Structure formats: structure tokens, C-alpha cells
Amino acid sequence: MNNAVAGFSKLSKEEKINWIANEYFSNPNEAITTIKQYWNTDVKLQQLHDEFIENTITNFYLPMGIAPNFLINGKYYAVPMVIEESSVVAAAAKSAKFWSTRGGFKATVLNTQKIGQVHFLFQGDTAKLQTFFDTVKATLIDSTESITKNMQKRGGGILGLGLRNKTAELAHYYQLHATFETKDSMGANFINSCLEQLAKSLKEAAQNYAAFNEAEKNLTVVMSILSNYVPNCIVRAEVSCKVEDLAEKKIENPKEFADKFVQAVRIAEIEPFRAVTHNKGIMNGVDAVVLATGNDFRAVEAGVHAYASRNGQYASLSHAKIENGIFTFWMEIPLALGTVGGLTSLHPLVKMALEILGKPSAPELMQIVAVTGLAQNFAALRSLTTTGIQEGHMKMHINNILNQFQTTPEERNKIKAHFENNTISHAAVVSFIENLRK
């Protein structure tokens, strides 16, 4: 394609598909067939999916699996997970079963505050601005009443509003820093609507403040937006048991295993190169449940990784210790989640996932998500400190390789039998397939 396209968004769905197929594929008919294979035969359901985003041409499938046997605060859960990576669901389920016989997971929501900011420029006296803010603060909050009244009935709303002086970092830059409680909704639209009203009221109040000169009256609002960094929306997940109770088939010496496990976590606490991969493993579990429940995994990822860097260096989100013969493994992470609004009330599989979880409140979902992340981390560290990560992962990954080479059932049986007692690698599997077919 050498030319830009004009008015793409105004084309019908069929016209968009035809344009894509003819511009980018040597076999347009084959491309169109593939695209339409993923359409839902239920016209209304397909239309629902089409309207989630813009310029939709088809659906992109990800598998949805279940990790059962999660014992969380004394209650069993079967956790729905949406992810494309082999071994993640299996690892979560294995950890869940392991800890279900050792007291299960404990989870606690420490707080649920969310943050939004009005960023503005003010060219004038800082002390005068502070006096102005103290004078109009109540009026600013009152101006959002029409937006917050329903949220207030549910126990939410604006919790606090402050003025922050950021001029040391950027000339003339200040913030209105607001904290919110949004109950069972993620609250992005609610928070942003409140912030835009606060910004409008701030400008109007400045224009009418007699103590300001003309330059001070004309403060400039740069933007009003929620923050996906939520260090005051924290959930803690943990497991603990006597060191000797860690024993199982692949942990014959539980004391040695526990010591090695703690050292592996400490390495991730001080070594950023390891910490990134370590935390990615946690997010394998977190993101999979966040996706399954229709929440914003990009916002969660951004907030979690910012939190991992809060002390000036990127570090492990999880921690481990042995004290008085007790092994404890835990983490605290920020999670801004919702169980009402958005996709939670639209996407049929999201509604199903929430029903599988017992229709949890937002704090309950925070606990489930955090526990799944911790379980995933435990599974990875158990493998790393015992058999190595590749043994289990490649056993799961072999199916992807077999699908890639379109192996027959007979070939699959021979390949899997061979690799029961041989090291699995992509190259080794491919070589075996090629020899088998000679």
C-alpha cells in the first residue's frame, strides 16, 4: 500500500474488510474468509462486540480457562483466567491445590482510594493561591454535587481535595489533587467527570476572586484526568505454613527449599533485571483475571509497575521470610477494579466470569486477583528453585508446536511418548517431527 485512505471510519464493515483484504493480502478472498470465520453467528451478539471499539472487522479470540481449588479467606473459588500463554492456568491451579491443604490464601484490602488531578498553570503569588484555594475549596466540591449524588448514596464520592505546588519541578505548575471512593465501579468516567467540573469551577472562581490581578485570574487548566497510579488502593495477599509442611513429591527437603525460595525473592528485591521477570510472572496471574472480569489490564499494569518503583528502584512486588519455623510469602499491590459498569454489564463472558466468582464486590475481586498473582509467582519460584522453569512450560508448549506443524493424532502419540523421557525444546520437537515424516 502506497497511499493513505480517506474516510476509513465512514466505510461499512464489509467495505473496511474488502479494502484491508485488497490492499494487504496477495489472496484477498482467503483473508476475507479468515476474518469472517471469527464472527459470531448470533447477529446481535456480534453487533455488541463490534460496538466495543472503532473500525471493527472481526473478533480476536483468547482462550478462557479455569483454575479451581483457590481457598481464599476460608472460601473456595474457581478462578476464570483469559490468557494466551501456555502453563499459566496450570501453574495457578497447581499452586491453588498446594495451598488449599496448607491453610489457603489470606487476603486483605488495606484501602480503596483512587486519585484524580486537575493540572494547571498559575502565574502569581503562591501564598495568594493557597488562600484562594482555602476560600473556594468547599464551593469547588459542591459544584460536583449533580455528578456525585448517586455515588454518595452508595457510600462513595470525593474524599478529599488538596492544592499541590509543583513549581520546583515545572515553572508555574500546580495541581488540584483529589481522592475518590468509587465503591464497586472502577470509576474512571465518574472521576474524570468530577475533575472536569472541578476545573471549570476553579477557572470561574479565579475570574471572580477580587484579590487576584488579571494575570492571576487567567490561570490555565492544562488537563483534568484520573491517575492509574493508585498507591492508596492496596490489597495484601499471603500464604504461610510451617516449613516442614512445604514437603511434597518435588520438595523432599522443605528447609532447603524454603531457604532457596527466600533467597530467590531477595534477589528480585535488589536486582531490577530479575525483578522485571519476577513481576511479569505475578502479572500473568493478575492480568488473566482482570481480563476475564472485563477490567482494564493496561491501567492495572501501569499502576503496579509504578508501585514496584516507588522507592527509587524497580523491585520485587512479593516478599518471603522464615521466622520461628514459619514460612511466609506475601505481596501488596495496587488494584483499581470494578464489578459494575463498563464491560461487566455488557460482555456475556465477563458476566459469566463474575458469576463463577460468586458476583464479588470490587474489594472481593481485588483479593481474588491479588491471590492469583501470588499463586502464579509461587508456582514460578517453586519451579525455578527445584526442577527449572522449562520442564513444565515446555510440556505445555509442545501442543502449540504440534498445532503449528498440523500433526496427525498418530504423530502426536509418538511425539509425546518420545518426549516423556527426553528434553523438550522447540528445535528437538521440530527435528523429531521431520524425522518422523521422512
Describe the structure.
It contains 16 helices and 10 strands. The chain has 438 residues and is an alpha+beta fold. The strands form 3 sheets. Strands 3-8-10-9 form a 4-stranded antiparallel β-sheet. A 4-stranded antiparallel β-sheet has the order 5-6-4-7. Helix 10 (272-292) packs antiparallel against helix 11 (297-308).
Layout of helices and strands:
Blueprint: H1 13-24, H2 28-37, H3 43-50, E1 64-72, E2 75-82, H4 88-100, E3 106-109, E4 114-121, H5 126-142, H6 145-153, E5 157-165, E6 173-181, H7 188-207, H8 214-217, E7 220-227, E8 234-242, H9 254-270, H10 272-292, H11 297-308, E9 318-323, E10 326-334, H12 348-356, H13 362-384, H14 389-404, H15 409-418, H16 426-437
Antiparallel strand pairs: 1-2, 3-8, 4-6, 4-7, 5-6, 8-10, 9-10
Helix pairs in contact: 1-2, 4-13, 5-7, 9-10, 10-11, 10-13, 13-14
